[in-house]
Amino acid sequence: MTRKDDAYKYIRNKIIRGEYLPEQILSENTLTQEIGVSRTPVREALHQLSSESLVTFVGRTTMVSPLTKEDVAETYELRTLLEIYALEKTIDKIPDRLLDEVEEEFKSSAAEHDWEKYLAVDIKFHNLITNIHQKQFDQLLNIIRSQTDRTRYINAHSKRSMDRSLEEHLQIISKIKQRDFGEAKKALEYHLQQVYEAVLEYVNYR
């Protein structure tokens, strides 16, 4: 991993986890000290993050990109379309053993009330759905990946409970195991709508 990669991962994680807040000014000098690298890899990392809409350049100032209602709506509209498209292609291919595995991981992380573990399982599960190996699809998914990850953490700290999220995921898994695309689609759409509303509430509150 290069120094630029180190800087990119560090800054991205801070933004995704909400440790760097929307519209917060990012100082290159401060970042170099925090990460322990020179300004060049920090600058390169910031440009990559800009291409992912996580940071914004305003003149010579760099700040964490604001998260607007329009951003959230666009992200979840596209995410829903992509995941439903993928679900239709993967519903008959995801092995029961993998579904059983993520189901148990969801339950155990929820029982521990460990949001870090729970979010890791959430990413793993949705990756199972979207793992269709189509180049153009993957490119579209990558466009919204950073914003999706960002909103995952917002949802984790919203008023929405882990129990509700767990119930929604178990319902999706159940319908996929039954290979019932119509019902699995409804369950997935409902889940994504609930997450969207929780994130939108956060954005409106801010």
Protein model, in words:
The structure is a single chain. The chain is mainly α. The protein folds into two domains: 3-64, Arc Repressor Mutant, subunit A (Orthogonal Bundle); 69-205, Up-down Bundle (Four Helix Bundle (Hemerythrin (Met), subunit A)), CATH 1.20.120. It has nine helices and two strands. The protein has helices spanning 3-16, 28-35, 39-51, 69-90, 96-111, 115-130, 135-156, 162-177, 181-205; strands at residues 55-58, 61-64. Strands 1-2 form a two-stranded antiparallel ribbon. A hairpin with a 2-residue loop joins strand 1 and strand 2. It starts with a helix and ends with a helix. The mean pLDDT is 94.
Spell out the blueprint of helices and strands.
Blueprint: H1 3-16, H2 28-35, H3 39-51, E1 55-58, E2 61-64, H4 69-90, H5 96-111, H6 115-130, H7 135-156, H8 162-177, H9 181-205
Antiparallel strand pairs: 1-2
Helix pairs in contact: 1-3, 4-6, 4-7, 4-9, 5-6, 5-8, 7-9, 8-9
Strand order of the largest sheet: 1-2
Low-pLDDT sequence parts: none
- Number of beta strands: 2
Mean pLDDT across residues: 94
Main beta sheet, described?
2 strands, antiparallel
Number of individual domains: 2
What is the helix tally? 9
**CATH level 1 class label of the largest domain:** Mainly Alpha
> Residue share in helices?
over 70%
Overall geometry = elongated
Spatial gap, N to C terminus:
36 Å
Topology order in helix (H) and strand (E) letters: HHHEEHHHHHH
- Please tell me the CATH architecture of the largest domain by its name: Up-down Bundle
CATH topology of the largest domain: Four Helix Bundle (Hemerythrin (Met), subunit A)
- CATH homologous superfamily label of the largest domain: GntR ligand-binding domain-like
The fraction of residues in strands falls at under 5%
GO molecular function: DNA binding; DNA-binding transcription factor activity
Protein name: GntR family transcriptional regulator
Keywords: DNA-binding, Transcription, Transcription regulation
Pfam families: FCD, GntR
